Automatic annotation (TrEMBL), chain A:
The lineage of its organism: Archaea, Nitrososphaerota, Candidatus Caldarchaeales, Candidatus Caldarchaeaceae, Candidatus Caldarchaeum. It is found in: Cell membrane. InterPro entries: Cyt_c_oxidase_su4_prok. It comes from Caldiarchaeum subterraneum. Keywords: Cell membrane, Membrane, Transmembrane, Transmembrane helix. The chain crosses the membrane at residues 20-41, 48-69, 81-100. The keyword Transmembrane helix applies. It holds the Pfam family COX4_pro. This is Cytochrome C oxidase subunit IV. GO terms for cellular component: plasma membrane. It is a multi-pass membrane protein.
Automatic annotation (TrEMBL), chain B:
Pfam families: COX1 (PF00115), COX3 (PF00510). GO terms for biological process: aerobic respiration; electron transport coupled proton transport; respiratory electron transport chain. It is a multi-pass membrane protein. Residues 6-516 form the Cytochrome oxidase subunit I profile domain. Keywords: Cell membrane, Electron transport, Heme, Iron, Membrane, Metal-binding, Respiratory chain, Transmembrane, Transmembrane helix, Transport. PANTHER family: CYTOCHROME C OXIDASE SUBUNIT 1 (PTHR10422). Belongs to the heme-copper respiratory oxidase family. This is Cytochrome C oxidase subunit I. The lineage of its organism: Archaea, Nitrososphaerota, Candidatus Caldarchaeales, Candidatus Caldarchaeaceae, Candidatus Caldarchaeum.
Amino acid sequence: MGLPLPAVLPDLEEAVDVRVLVYVAVWVALVVFTVIELMLVGMPMTPITIALGILGLASLKALLIALFYQHLIGEAAWVKIFYAFALLTAVGLVVGMITGI
Amino acid sequence: MGEIPRNSLRRWLFTTNHKDIGILYLVTSLYFLVAAGALALLVRIQLTYPNMGFLTASAYNQAITVHGVVMLLWFLSPIAFALANYIVPLQIGARDLAFPRLNAMSYWLLLFGGLIAALGFFTPGGAIDTGWTVYAPLNTAKYSPQPGITLAGAGLLLLMASVTLSTVNFLVTIFRMRVKGLSLLKMPMFTWGILLTVFLMLLAFPPFAAAVLMLASDRILGTVYFLAPEGGALLWTHLLWFFGHPEVYILLFPALFALGDVLVTFTKRPIYGKKIVIAAAIAGSVLSLMVWGHHMFTTGINPVWRKIMTVLTETISIPFGVIILAYILTLVGGRIRLRTPMLFALGSIALFIIGGITGVFNSSVAIDYGVRGTYWIVGHFHFTLVGGATTALVAAIYYWWPKMSGRMFSEKLGKLHFTIYMIGYLILYLPMHALVDMPRRVYTYPAGYGWELNNLLATIGAFIFALSWPIFFLILYKSLRSGEPAGNNPWGGWSLEWLTKSPPPPHNYDGEPVVDDSGTIRITTLPTNGGHAYHEHYSPWPITISLAAFLIFLGAILFLPVAVAGLLLLVASVVGLAKEGLAEKFKIPEAPEGARWPFTQVEKVKLGVWMFLYSEAVLFGSLIGSYVFVRLNSAAWPAPGEVLSITNGAVNTFILLTSSLTAVLALASVRVGNQTGLKAGLLATFILGLAFLLNKAVEWNEIFQHGFTFSSGLPAAAFYITTGAHGAHVAAGLVVLAYIIAKAFKGGYTRENHSTVEYFGLYWHFVDIVWVFLFPLFYLI
């Protein structure tokens, strides 16, 4: 079709290379955070502190997966807003249940 | 499939056309109305006089329970979706819903769900008899061992699958398939009502789905979520009412907003303050997710929360007051034509006002303590759901009937119908408000409490009200047989559906609907939808997949070989569906132009996946919330490593995290046209997913051998149900992945066309996110 594909391709490949690096870096971070979670289990701290630490790391891992693997970072604003609203609904239910509604 | 004659049975079984499915919904919901209405009459006969013996206590309990469940879930919602299916695509100028086969599947799942629930009547012990709220622990096998309750649970699960598909379908259709120029604010009121309804469904149904899943597990596998005192009654009540309160608005919005369209047409005035009405409805929707605690005032919940719930509940009455006030102001100065749809519309507004006002009383903790569980409550919610919603939907059916049938109906008979309907209605439900001290859900009552006259009146009213329905059906039948031709726009309506033929052709419009900047609508003579011709689509797989699900549940509950047959049918159907996909038979391109804000840049399948994931987030939130709830209520819980191997959980975590990496690398590969990388990435993801499931199976087998079985207690219940639901999601992902791999090996994905790989990834990463939380919750804390 006469499109200037050769001129575009190197840029595209470069962009993809960068993306692959990001994907691998995120995976490394996920593995490292999981290892830290495992290490926290035996630490001499109160159970609440350990639980909060582990769940904080889990939340961070979830955020990384959502932002970089689900590509939420580049999604339309309303996709993020609806996602946040759904999560807020779920959290609201849990908070309501455990605080004694 | 080849061409199918439009008057054949095969057409109705295999159709995916939104108008056909709308008619299927209409007929089915009216069938369920008649069935549940007949049960209500049995109940009223039993309550006519004190100490009646017309029904046994058990028969009464079954009749009242099935009446409630069917009216709420198999009549009111489906009849609204009958109209939504038929009318919404017409109102937004679309050729069909976004996903026609999923739409057909929604219908068949609903039908088979209703049938499996009804089968309970023919099993030992009879149908579900717990009251429509199915409170725990009465719902457990210990107190209600009859299979009728398990069958009803299976019916509810099928219904929820139906609801999930419908919800995603309508959200994507309304957001992505509006004709050019039709902004959200310019949409007709009914479409707005459906948009808000499906949005609420998306968030409110998953907690109930989680509850029913846990109940099914309790009853079939022997877990103890609702039997244990640390879970039990309060946990069920939370999950039920988190769904149950928004459900009121889910039932109400389609009706309330259909009224808007009727009022506009029969007053010849735009809705007064339309923007404010919509804003009020959005506020009401959000608030409806925050007031479930007012159904739990008498359960001993935190007093501070009771006060908050009282305030929120009183607040929620404001937006609905605003909407009704706007409707009344629309009438003021309008050129009102009292045709049958308008009469029912006005009747509905009047009855809804009464139902709304009695609801405000119930928000007071003090009053609620007195009236909870009495006929005052029965009267109140029948005024909102029958007086408000059903009456408005009757108005809506009369309003759109000429469009659907192409025929007018008898105004004279319509007015007779309205008169008998209203007289019967008022004699039936008004006396209930005087029975403020008579307990509901009790099969008889003693004489001498002053309840006799009001009960007698209610029964007389019930029969008059029941009489109005055969008149309604007769009117519709006579219209079909010999009604005057309706023409395109018999009422002089202002929205798009009135610009096409009555009934509309399969492709809806002979031309291109257009909405210009001033809001004027017209049909141009351009080719359909920006050049994309419409083709009729038939598919056998929606009905066979739904039938397979029906057989699997039926077999699992009553006779296992049936489940095996169902499983085989499911596999065959999924393969058939996949073949349709591989052949791209259902590939419906999006029109190049259209009003798509706020999802202008989000392709429709992708938007559908996101919407589905929002619902999934609430489902897993509910399951995790239930785990947290019972864990915090339990005095003892196994320490990390005591029952579950941390190593095992960690290995599975690394496997799943790596599978997410391989999935996203497959996507990166196809984006540069690297087919080898794509196939390698997809295969690696599949193998890792399989390894996750195998490792889980080995783990389950080991802990089972060590005595940690389904019935071991709450830790076992929480673990097996939550990780089991997650495992089922992994398995479902692998089925889809197998299809994607097959297509990839056929060269089906290219640098330009690889969206399916991306959308699968969204789901797969979501499943990974869920495990990221399940691992620490069950293995480390």
